[in-house]
Amino acid sequence: MEEAGNLSQVSGFLLMGLSEDPREQQLLFILFLVMYLVTGLGNLLIVLAIVTDARLHTPMYFFLANLASVDICFTTTTIPKMLVNHVSGHRGIPYAGCLTQTFFFILFADIDSLLLTAMAYDRYEAICHPLHYATSVTPKLCSLLVGASWAAAFANALTHTALLTRLSFCTHNRVPHFFCDLSPLLKLACSDAFINNVMVYTVGSLFVFTPFMGILVSYTCIFSAVLRIPSKTGRQKAFSTCGSHLSVVTLFYGTLIGVYFSPTSSHTAQKDTVAAVMYTVVTPMMNPFIYSLRNKDMKGALVALVSRRPL
Fold this sequence. Notes:
Layout: E1 12-15, H1 22-52, H2 59-88, E2 92-94, H3 95-128, H4 133-136, H5 139-164, E3 174-175, H6 182-188, H7 194-201, H8 203-206, H9 209-227, H10 232-260, H11 269-293, H12 296-307
Helix pairs in contact: 1-2, 1-11, 1-12, 2-3, 2-11, 3-5, 3-9, 3-10, 9-10, 10-11
């Protein structure tokens, strides 16, 4: 594997992973394998429960089923390659494979962000405009929002990946990460990455800050509406339906903004890697627990699915 020359001469990169210690690597392999299996199984159960239970065929659960499906793809983009590297002892990833991983990572991260925004809009309409909810949040609109999320995320991921191909990596091909993330790749470049960084802070922010601000505005209106509900039971039910979504939003956006939009002087490879583990592994794994444990309908559908009882 070459470490000098322009990008067309570099055959690949070395993913340095999370630790250099062989004993820690074994522990991390077991930990991440378990987390990956839990993530896949948990999100798959969420999707199956929503599909098989007619009571859950509502906009909120339609978005949740899509979010669970994307989370499976999101973790599959990064974790399996890391696990294979641990088993084989080979840390290399081909140049084309690195760009492919970067593309799909950005794609699924953006879709996650936009779906969380769509879910916030759904909760806003349900709580702030309950009488018009059925006519405002229609199946056609839900499908349109999901389709638009995929299209916008695809365009953004393709743009960032295409811009990577114009960079040169002259001295190093060692990526201090467990996958080909955009941020460490840009730091490795020896050619001018100004345009790439501008894209991260402008177009990239449209998929992070804009949705995040939209969610904050939605929840400001939601909390104001909930506090006006005279019934204590009604307030508790409203907060319960929103609390799980807000927990996921906090986990996802908190770490994402910390990695990509905080001052570079505060960055270290170790901090960025830990934060990346949070939003690429921990958050997708926690989503099924957060959404199911706080939702009676979802718990009932999961119990019926697992026990194979008729609903």
